[in-house]
Amino acid sequence: MDSKTKQMILSALCKHFSVDPVGLGGSGESDVKTLYSNVVKASGKEVSSQNNDEVLKWMEYAEGLSKDCFAALEKLNVELAVKSVVLGDGLTPSAADVAVFAALHASVIGLSDSDKEKIPHVIRWMNYIQIKEELTTLFGPISVKLPQFDFEVSKSVVKVDSKKTAESPKPLDKSEAQPSTKKTEPEEPKKKAAKEKDAKKEKKKPAEAAPAAASKETELSVSLLNIQVGLIRKAWKHPSADSLLVEEIDVGEGKVRQVVSGLAKFCSPDDLTNRLVALITNVKPGKLRDVMSEGLVLCASNEDHSVVEPLLPPAGAKPGERVSFSGVEGKAEEVLNPKKKQLEKITPHLYTDESGVATYKGIPFMTSAGPCTSTIPKATIK
Known about the structure:
Layout: H1 3-17, H2 32-43, H3 49-64, H4 70-80, E1 88-89, E2 92-93, H5 95-109, H6 113-117, H7 120-132, H8 162-166, H9 174-177, H10 187-219, E3 227-237, E4 245-250, E5 256-261, H11 269-272, E6 276-280, E7 286-288, E8 291-293, E9 296-297, E10 299-301, E11 308-310, H12 342-346, E12 350-352, E13 358-360, E14 363-364, E15 366-367, E16 370-371, E17 380-381
Antiparallel strand pairs: 1-2, 3-4, 3-6, 4-5, 6-9, 7-8, 10-11, 10-17, 12-13, 13-14, 15-16
Helix pairs in contact: 1-2, 1-5, 3-5, 4-7, 5-7
Protein name: tRNA-binding domain-containing protein
Organism: Brassica campestris
Region (Disordered): 162-215
């Protein structure tokens, strides 16, 4: 490992432990384990022996990485498919995450787009660490160019058998054509007229139903939702509900929005602070247990709802920008109407794919910096 990479690891560790790097000596001669130990000692924080041993193993891993380390990245991608961080508590990164991030950064940004697409969990994790640890000033953004998605609408074709259509109707026998009694003769034209009238009504029904069907399809479009990138400035426990957290979220309006979320069982306030989220901002404001809420944080959930986490926009996404969906156009409702159950009709089409990318009917949630993601593949989103 070159001295420049070691210096980046030292800087990132100092940021993680809130330590001034001045006085810690140079990084050229020291190995990564020694750098870590020096930073921990300078921080004055106590680290359990078990946790320290685990961190040191990852420090050794970081030091062993070379610039040509794609095989190691693929192995790390498999490991990160089932967890949010390499070592930590839930969503909270450890010093190991910071050191491995710093060791990998230069190699990852140098990869081709096709190689980046092969390690989606590593890219998602690096985006998260950069945001969570506020490392943007130390490291450049990690950009991922996604493949273009082409969508084709298939049309149903009704085949008509021209041979059968051309055939003339079978002539009636004289006995069939001739009425049996004089009484039925005046009734026959009436019946024929009634049948023709009914047939016209039946033909009109599909044409009348077409606008209604189109209206329903428009109503179900995700374009009705105003999903924006938000930055959580502050989070705290709800004063009267153990399952709820309250967040102040910046969506570029010049003021923060207060939002109540049912995340207390899955995230701590510290986990959410300074984290980017995908926020529906056009839900009708209302109180949840006497606390006003002005938005809905979109979260991914596994099948039994035992793991829940907010969707993560990529590093570089700007608070306030609207999440878009390729090929889906439309203006968002000013305020969603709860009586129409618009949100309830759209959310069944929101889910993460096998790589953890958030989608609407398979179309990624896109920002200017890339897609929104989750550590939970094939999850429901609501």
